[in-house]
Amino acid sequence: MISHGLTRLSLRVRGKLTCILTTMTSIGTGYDLSASTYSPDGRIFQVEYANKAVENSGTAIGLRVKDGVVLAVEKLIHSKLLVPGANRRIQTVDRHIGMASAGLLADSRKISQLARDSGAQTRKQWKEPLTVKALSDTVSWNAQTYTLYSSVRPFGVSTIFGGVDKSGPSLYIVEPSGVCLGYHGAAVGKGRQLAKTELEKLKLSELSMREAVMEAARIIYLVHDDNKEKEFELEMTWVGVESNDLHLPVPADLLEEAKKKAKDALETFE
Amino acid sequence: MDHFPTNWGRPRNDAFDAYATYPIHQRPYNGPKDTFADGVQRTQQPIVTGTSVLAIKYKDGVMMAADNLASYGSLARFKDVQRLHQVGNYTVIGAGGDMSDFQYIQYILEELSIDEISAQDGHELGPIEIHEYMSQLMYARRSKMNPLWNSLLIGGFKDGKRFLSYVDLLGTTYSASTLATGYGAFIAQPLLRKAVEGREDVITEEEARKILEDSMRVLFYRDARSMNKFQIATISSAGVSISDSMQLETAWSFAENIRGYGAQTQ
Amino acid sequence: MIMPDMDSLAHPQERRFNPYTENGGTILAIAGADFSVIAGDTRQSEGYSIQTRYAPKVFRLTDRAVLAVNGFAADGNMFVKKVKQRLEWYHHAHAKDMPLRAIARLIQTMLYARRFFPYYVYNILGGIEEDGTGAVYSFDPVGSYEREACRAAGAAQSLVQPFLDNQIYFKNQEAAQGTSHPSHLPLETVLSIVIDSFTSATERHIEVGDGLEIFIALSKGRTLQGMESIRGLQELTVTEDGERLFVMRRDLKKD
């Protein structure tokens, strides 16, 4: 008697749930359990979920300007107990290349390791620093591999690679799908839509690096949602003539100036 | 008594070693033979070589000199080789000995520098760290009986302190206010000591340069594997700078008056 | 670098990498009843070349153990580094310094581990035993060791050891009628014997000279007894255990 009743109840609930979920994202259809399976309409849900991980992360942007590249990250501080400056989201790949990431930080560490190995290998084989394009290609090739098998999960990060090489300043994004595209201005993470709109307003190829630092700071402060998110740290690096073609943190005084201007701009914007 | 332990207990006939008394690295081997063993080569002698490197401490830091010649035996094979190499922002490494091994060392140190930059931990490699790393590397390689055939001088200036030290293919290290490798150890070192010892805090950059130039000139006169084209590196609080190649004034007119050798005058 | 001699250029020869060299210098240690003195010169040389006038050969291991190493300098430095590392691990495991006799045994094990590719170094370990007596242990390159009252090693061993035999063990000396030789000498006497040994070795051996470093380990409860007057004495004691360690430096002739 009792068991019979339970079965009927659960059947009813299950039917309702399936109905709701399929109308939303096809969850529960079974096509989202493995990266090795397409859905009937040609999507790989695991890759799309990986993009969700990226969307949950603080914004990261990159500006490719006249004589260099500027990377900036809105690093959300989820605890006051964290040491300021810790858990950097912008990492150095090689002397002349940096990467900023949005998504799972642990995954981005693996990507930076991969990227550094690639840099070391290029140097060993060709006695030449690798180009940002070649680096992004290598990383994207790896990321794509992780969209093919049921035994692995795609990387939960979108990575912006920025640097200066023999072809000048370069900026690329590698997404969880393995897609790799070059940009004048790049934005990933939570606030990417607004950030892109702001980037589009700029004449990026005419900006100096110092101007780009100001703009990058302004955009990060602009896209930060005070109501939803708690504290954030502005992390910013650059590569180009200002840094002697080395990937280095933006000097502290310039960073402070940029922050101040960004805050002032915020007042007038609203 | 024979103080060299590799000689102890060794039978007089080198072909026979009944009691396995040889050190492992030179024990006679009677087991199955690897046909391709001869294909694995280790450096048993240098091929393309650089000669002396000189270095002194002076008031503001360290100064180092080496010529631009890489010899193939007695042949002056490569005449535009840089033997002073900057590592990081505070260090110069100068090499005598095998130049291919030196190029390998440069590659290793480049890798090390990039790893260090990527760590972004606020630490930078100074001359002390580079010297420790190189001495561990050189000693490890000699212990594998596969040495990097070089004598290296490592000089630098960091955190207000100058540093000058030596390491060679055996892993032997030492530091002093004047150092010289190769023939320079016999010919230039006495001159350097006389000019520098006890005056390390007085010698100006100009004077230091003159001391090194004078020693390089003597070496050029006396060392048949040297060349009158060299570079000078200065490392001080202002950072590292390695000069362009330069030449010295030399005078050979006395040679016309030389007749025979020693007491022979005809 | 060894200067090539003429006959080696005359006929072809097989060239093989020799992983060893000899860096000269001399070390010496003497044990007293409640102290131990360990000394070494600071010259490092190869052939006829002085590489440096200051390269320490005597190292503090703990407050009651000092190690002197002589022979192939690169091996010596590496060996000391490894011994110190083992002592640090011991300290982490047991929250105390390793006793002297245990360090001695450790050194023999570490040396013998390289029996077939030896560290080409002669070690002399000096210090204070757990029973408070001064001790000297001497080793050969592959780990044979014994506790002694005194030992010299290195380039001038053959000059210094007979002198110590005579002055410490009173070999070839007849005690005056109705008296006997003392079994232990006072620190003051020992120090002057050490200094005399090195000045003499400097005179007669080209590989000895430049500087002298003398370590003095004192047993628990022993008063300084006149040591205050020693010029330039520097204390190295770290722990509060009671044993004390000092070092004194002297110039030797540089020619």
Can you offer a commentary on this structure?
The complex is a heterotrimer of chains A (270), B (266) and C (255). With 270 residues, chain A is an alpha+beta fold. Chain A contains seven helices and ten strands. Chain A has helices at residues 2-24, 45-55, 105-126, 132-145, 192-201, 209-223, 252-269, and strands at residues 60-65, 68-76, 90-94, 97-103, 157-165, 168-174, 180-182, 185-188, 232-240, 248-249. In chain A, the strands form two sheets. Chain A has a five-stranded antiparallel sheet. In chain A, strands 3-4-5-6-7 form a five-stranded antiparallel sheet. In chain A, 42% of the residues are buried. Chain B has helices at 99-119, 127-143, 184-196, 205-222; strands at 48-50, 53-58, 61-67, 70-72, 75-78, 84-87, 91-98, 150-158, 161-168, 173-174, 178-180, 230-236, 239-242. The longest helix of chain B is centred in the middle third of the chain and has 21 residues, at 99-119. Chain B is globular. Chain C is α+β, with helices and mostly antiparallel strands and 255 residues long. Chain C has five helices and 13 strands. In chain C, the strands form three sheets. Chain C has a six-stranded antiparallel sheet. The radius of gyration of chain C is 19 Å and the shape is globular. Chain C starts with 5 loop residues before the first helix and ends with a strand. The model of chain C is unreliable at 8-14 (pLDDT under 50). The chains are: A alpha+beta (270), B alpha+beta (266), C alpha+beta (255). Chains in contact: A-B, B-C. Chain A: This is Proteasome subunit alpha type. Chain A: Belongs to the peptidase T1A family. Chain A: It is found in: Cytoplasm; Nucleus.
